[in-house]
Specification:
With 395 residues, the protein is of the alpha+beta class. 30% of the residues lie in helices and 14% in strands. The protein is built from 11 helices and 12 strands. Strand 1 and strand 2 form a beta hairpin. The radius of gyration is 19 Å and the shape is globular.
């Protein structure tokens, strides 16, 4: 588990105008027309991995720091560029803490599927059965549909009242178990199971179902079912905005304005099981090798997890062609297939991936937010670099 933060100077609260911007960029998908698209040169596949990361750091709007950990079962290789904190010469390190954004959804998937394996839950359990206090209109939604984003649940992070609360005070402390109340008056977006649509509400409901089935807090379930089995000693789910030290500083990089440190701008209580976990590149490497490799539960559960929805993409999209499973995605690249998850939040963009047997893995972390709405050109470049790293891993 993370060490306690030592006393030190903390970055100030993000100014109100920037904070309002960050809330929108973090939690809703903006129209691409809003984002200032800049043409980005495509990385040359023959450039070294080190060169590609250095070019990514130097790109307009690029991250101040990036670190990639490649593990092939026998050895580990760390490639990094830039710095862990602007104004210093400290390089990103595998044991630096960071916000893992929506890769936290893989953790809620790991909890839920472990409970399926132990017969506390079934994939066909419905919200009506497990969480009768939620709206009746949502009652037929199953755990399977929550995990593969075919539930149709309205996304609470798009609710105007939620966004206004967060914009007024980015460090506001939410009751994480009442986040779905913001959209409790809304019907399903579409009949459950009829199409794919990524929603942050899905994984809040997954965590609540896990708690209802076990009468154990989600944080404790994470510890018992995920952290301990995979030896994750620097991973936690905080409620506040602090980060354990040392950490990778995350930045808002919006030229021509100078980069702004937003590492501790937002409370994690407002994203909870959907994106609030703090971890390190080293821990994330251990996690994805065990998770993608199916080491947490029986092969029958793994088989259900890998029933793919063609074209279902993570957010942001990962390298190659994306297909969605149960809290996991298949990335089919020109060099082969890896399984994993991506995520983005103010200050950070994440990719974790491993081969289906878990023997080879890639953890790829950048210290600014990159997605299709904000920086489509940079995202396209990032995906090419990530695919090149996958190819290096698989070779």
């Amino acid at each position: 588990m993370p060490t306690a933060p030592s006393p030190r100077r903390r970055p100030p609260l993000v100014p109100r105008t920037r904070a309002s911007c960050l809330v929108a960029l973090c939690l809703i998908l903006l129209s691409p027309a809003v984002a200032g698209a800049t043409t980005q040169p495509r990385p040359h596949p023959h450039d070294s991995l080190q060169q590609q990361l250095e070019q990514l750091v130097r790109a307009p709007g690029g991250p101040p720091g990036v670190i990639a950990v490649l593990q092939d079962g026998r050895s580990s290789r760390v490639v990094r560029a830039g710095v862990a904190e602007l104004g210093t010469a400290r390089r990103p390190e595998p044991h630096d803490h960071m916000r893992i954004a929506s890769t936290a959804k893989a953790f809620s998937g790991a909890v839920a599927l472990s409970l399926v394996d132990r017969r506390y839950l079934r994939l066909d359990d419905t919200l009506r059965e497990r969480l009768p206090g939620l709206p009746r209109a949502w009652g037929s939604v199953t755990l399977r549909q929550l995990l593969n984003h075919t539930s149709g649940l309205p996304d609470y992070t798009e609710d105007p009242t939620f966004l206004a609360t967060l914009s007024a005070n980015p460090r506001h402390h939410f009751d994480s178990r009442r986040l779905l109340d913001y959209v409790a008056d809304r019907p399903l977006r579409f009949p459950a199971g009829t199409r794919y649509q990524y929603s942050n509400s899905d994984n809040i409901a997954v965590a609540l179902m896990a708690e209802a089935a076990t009468r154990v807090p989600y944080e404790r379930l994470l510890d018992e079912l995920v952290y301990r089995p995979l030896d994750l000693r620097r991973t936690s789910l905080p409620q506040g905005y602090r980060l354990p030290v040392p950490y990778l500083h995350g930045y808002d990089v919006t030229p021509p304005a100078p980069p702004e440190d937003i590492s501790e701008a937002l409370s994690m209580s407002g994203v909870w099981a959907s994106g609030g976990i703090v971890s390190t590149p080293a821990d994330m490497t251990r996690f994805v090798r065990g998770y993608a490799g199916g080491r947490l539960y029986d092969h029958r559960v793994v088989r259900e997890q890998r029933r793919w929805i063609p074209g279902g993409a993570s957010e942001p999209a990962g390298p190659g062609r994306n297909d969605a499973g149960l809290a996991i995605f298949r990335y089919t690249t020109r060099c082969g297939v890896v399984l994993g998850h991506t995520g983005n939040t103010p200050g950070y963009t994440q990719l974790i991936a491993a081969t289906p047997d878990g023997r080879r893995s890639l953890t790829f972390s950048t210290t600014t937010q990159i997605n299709q709405a904000m920086k489509p050109g940079l995202l396209a470049r990032l995906r090419v670099v990530q695919e090149n790293f996958v190819c290096a891993l698989l070779r």
